[in-house]
Write a structure and sequence with these properties.
By secondary structure, this protein is α+β, with helices and mostly antiparallel strands. The chain folds into 2 domains: 12-181 and 325-330, 2-Layer Sandwich (Ribosomal Protein S5, domain 2), CATH 3.30.230.10; 186-320, Alpha-Beta Plaits, CATH 3.30.70. Helices cover 40% and strands 24% of the residues. The chain is built from 9 helices and 12 strands. The chain has helices at residues 83-96, 118-135, 140-155, 161-168, 203-216, 218-240, 244-260, 266-277, 303-312; strands spanning 12-24, 35-50, 55-60, 65-70, 102-108, 171-174, 181-182, 191-196, 282-286, 293-298, 316-320, 328-330. Strands 1, 2, 3, 4, 5, 6, 7 and 12 form an 8-stranded mixed sheet that branches. A 4-stranded antiparallel sheet has the order 9-10-8-11. A hairpin with a 6-residue loop joins β6 and β7 (181-182).
């Protein structure tokens, strides 16, 4: 009898999740105020390959780091920069009571520690790939829940806004414990510019800074937090009315309010000043602040002038588009 060769098919799944910018409402959203957020066309990528090693292996091309965890091990995994992703994956395995081994390769277009949601997009993409491997479909709520396990480790008290937008895409009004409301953005919406200060910072530390300030001076800070929430609602109405000059003014005002709660930075202030003086409708920090990125909105005819002015100050600046796609899967 001839030897029979059996070819074992290895499943490979590709997933992506988008970056985000918060148009209005960061920090206030932690305390139950609304925020306005959009997915943008920068992506995190995950390539999951099913293996028979009994391990979860994670490799990050951008960070140049890797980790491996034996699924039947009773030891705690090493807590390096990839540990939060592992926690999201283990959350899914526990949900299905499975011990599926896989190699996960991560790459990303999203700058790290810049306020663009990298720490949410990566675990969302990874969680989606593993969930699909086990279940053969996407359950976005379950994927978002798993990815939040990573965010809790990284940020301590995340609002949930980053994982939501990385999962669903589009533009949403978001408030904790309420159903997000999808916002239809008009086709003539101004261009969004993202400007990177190059200053790294910790979201968790900045959230904690605001919390401490709020506890120390509640009668001062609580009204500022509420004003940011009210401003976000006004910004949504401005979009509905296609009143982009008003929207720009509100974005710049949002930056000043965020500065009042201690999360701006001299480089962010310089970006806002430069952008507005050179034709932007408005500008502000985006995300946690303290460095990271700012955004500006401007009409198409002013984009080049605003970008050149910002580059002359030494900033990296690029135009992005709203992404209607959330997490996606290919096999």
């Amino acid at each position: 009898m001839k030897n029979l060769q059996v070819k074992v098919m290895t499943r490979e799944i590709l997933s992506t999740a988008p970056a985000k910018v918060i148009l209005c409402g960061e920090h206030a959203v932690v305390y139950g105020e609304p925020a306005l957020v959009t997915a943008i066309n920068l992506k995190a990528y995950c390539r999951l390959t099913e293996t028979k090693t009994g391990k979860i292996e994670i490799v990050s091309k951008n960070l140049g780091k890797s980790m491996s965890y034996t699924l039947d091990s009773r030891e705690e995994p090493s807590k390096n920069e990839l540990y939060p992703i592992l926690r999201s994956l283990l959350h899914i395995l526990d949900k299905f009571d499975k011990r599926v081994s896989a190699r996960i390769e991560i790459s990303s277009e999203i700058p790290v520690s810049a306020g663009l949601g990298s720490s949410a997009a990566v675990p969302v993409a990874c969680s989606a790939a593993l969930y699909y491997l086990i279940n053969g479909k996407l359950d976005r709520e379950a994927i978002m829940e798993a990815a939040r396990e990573a965010e809790k480790i990284i940020h301590g008290r995340p609002s949930g806004i980053d994982t939501m937008i990385a999962t669903f895409g589009g533009v949403y009004a978001y408030r904790k414990f309420e159903e997000p409301i999808k916002i239809d953005v008009p086709k003539d919406f101004p261009k969004i510019l993202v400007i990177d200060t190059g200053v790294k910072r910790s979201t968790g530390a900045l959230v904690e800074r605001v919390r401490k300030l709020k506890e120390r001076y509640p009668k001062v800070i609580d009204p500022v937090i509420h004003a940011i929430g009210r401003l976000t609602i006004e910004a949504i109405y401005a979009i509905f009315d296609r009143d982009y000059e008003r929207l720009g003014e509100l974005l710049t005002l949002n930056h000043r309010l965020l500065s009042a709660v201690g999360v701006s930075h001299e480089q962010l202030d310089l970006i806002v000043k430069t952008a507005v003086e050179n034709g932007a409708l408005g500008a502000k920090l985006t995300g946690a602040g303290g460095g990271g990125c700012a955004i500006a909105i401007c009409y198409e005819e002013h984009v080049e002038h605003v970008i050149n002015a910002l580059k002359a100050q030494g900033f990296k600046c690029f135009s992005v588009n709203v992404s209607e796609d959330g997490v996606t899967i290919e096999e």
